[in-house]
């Protein structure tokens, strides 16, 4: 992975390699130790893993503060195209946390879509973890590529920010106007395409993505679920990646904040899927967040003049406030209906 500055030069650092090894170690523990056998994680297990990833993100913010303060391996030496400033330890840590919470909040909507996919394909609960695990690996690769390209574009062509901002506002309006969640036309098209071009079994074969039948390879419904999860994450990344560029163009901060949000996604599904169903104003909250980020992109010059270095602190507090308001409003409405 590369860190891209305004000059457009890229260099691989030990910090990047160390972070990627850290992520691989976490995933290895997840699949090889904690979830070696296929089972349905209990709510307590899922919540514990969720809190662990959040704690790791907070600890990593301390690392970011230290690394950018002392410019380890060249971190924090490039001008951030968003605010025209060089990221010191404090600003880098704030931008990382802001990006993390924005990406994490947007990932919550992905939980519902994954639940729909598993329900439509009737994926047994004990095999859902395997799909999510390999889906995370694919998501990391896809987002890494998108971030590298996006950071280079934004750093070289600042007008791209206005396109991202307009796109996020349109997406926000679309979310506000969409009342029901159901199988999307894209999902139906992908399933038809897979059935037309591959041999797909109707039955699940334990945790296998493919099986050999009379010497021929057949995909299982679990493989279809994996393709749909990967496609869904790609579609969500189209929204979330531009959103993070409203905060920073530092590719290390963008990538790491996305990674921690993705690591939390699997446990969010098992631990919070049922709870989030009661969050009736979640889509509204996420739409408001996307719209807010889009406006910040379009009005970046004025926001910088008004708030200066406090702009990301204000954005972070606003995002948390929007989610809290949506949660409280949902709880009040549910209580009145009971």
Report on this model:
This protein is mainly alpha-helical. It has one domain (3-118, 125-198, 230-337). It contains eleven helices and six strands. The protein has helices at 14-34, 43-70, 89-121, 125-156, 160-177, 185-197, 221-244, 251-277, 282-298, 300-307, 311-337, and strands spanning 3-4, 10-11, 79-80, 85-86, 210-213, 216-219.
- Percent range of helical residues: over 70%
Shape: globular
Largest sheet: 2 strands, antiparallel
Strand order across the biggest sheet?
Answer: 1-2
DSSP strand tally: 6
Tell me the series of helices and strands, N- to C-terminal. Answer: EEHHEEHHHHEEHHHHH
Nearest-integer average pLDDT: 80
- β-strand amount: under 5%
Instruction: Report the end-to-end length measured between terminal Cα atoms.
Output: 52 Å
- Please compute the radius of gyration using only Cα atoms: 21 Å
By DSSP (H or I, 4+ residues per run), the number of helices equals 11
- How many structural domains in the coordinates? 1
Spans of at least 5 consecutive residues with low confidence: 1-12
* Helix/strand class: mainly alpha
Topology, element by element:
Blueprint: E1 3-4, E2 10-11, H1 14-34, H2 43-70, E3 79-80, E4 85-86, H3 89-121, H4 125-156, H5 160-177, H6 185-197, E5 210-213, E6 216-219, H7 221-244, H8 251-277, H9 282-298, H10 300-307, H11 311-337
Antiparallel strand pairs: 1-2, 3-4, 5-6
Helix pairs in contact: 2-3, 2-8, 3-7, 3-8, 3-9, 3-11, 4-7, 4-8, 5-9, 9-11
Keyphrases for this structure?
338 residues, mainly alpha, two-stranded antiparallel ribbon, 6 strands
């Amino acid at each position: 992975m590369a860190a891209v500055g305004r000059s457009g030069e890229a260099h691989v650092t030990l910090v990047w390699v160390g972070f990627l090894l850290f992520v691989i170690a976490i995933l290895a523990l997840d699949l090889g130790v904690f979830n070696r056998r296929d089972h349905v994680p209990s709510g307590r297990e899922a919540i514990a893993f969720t809190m662990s990833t959040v704690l790791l993100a907070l600890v990593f913010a301390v690392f970011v503060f230290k690394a950018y303060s002392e410019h380890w391996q060249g971190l924090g030496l490039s001008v951030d195209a968003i605010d025209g400033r060089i990221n010191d330890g404090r600003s880098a840590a704030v931008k990382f946390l802001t990006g993390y919470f924005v990406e994490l909040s947007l990932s919550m909507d992905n939980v519902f879509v994954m639940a729909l996919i598993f329900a439509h394909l009737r994926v047994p609960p004990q095999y859902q973890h395997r799909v999510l695990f390999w889906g995370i690996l694919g998501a990391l690769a896809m987002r890494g590529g998108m971030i590298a390209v996006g950071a280079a574009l934004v750093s070289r062509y600042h007008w791209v920010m206005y396109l991202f901002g307009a796109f996020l506002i349109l997406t926000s309006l679309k979310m506000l106007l969409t009342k029901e969640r159901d199988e999307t036309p894209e999902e139906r098209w992908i399933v038809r395409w897979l059935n037309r071009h591959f041999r797909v079994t109707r039955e699940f074969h334990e945790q296998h993505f493919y099986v050999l039948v009379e010497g021929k390879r057949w995909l299982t419904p679990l493989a279809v679920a994996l393709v749909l999860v990967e496609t869904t994450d790609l579609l969500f990344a189209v929204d979330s990646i531009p959103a993070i560029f409203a905060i920073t163009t530092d590719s290390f901060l963008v990538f790491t904040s996305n990674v921690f949000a993705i690591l939390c996604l699997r446990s969010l599904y098992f631990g919070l899927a049922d709870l989030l169903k009661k969050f009736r104003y979640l889509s509204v909250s996420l739409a408001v967040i996307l719209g807010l980020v889009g406006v910040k992109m379009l009005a970046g010059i004025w926001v910088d003049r008004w708030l200066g270095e406090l702009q990301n602190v204000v954005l972070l507090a606003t995002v948390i406030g929007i989610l809290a308001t949506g949660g409280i409003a949902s709880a009040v409405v549910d209580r009145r209906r009971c």
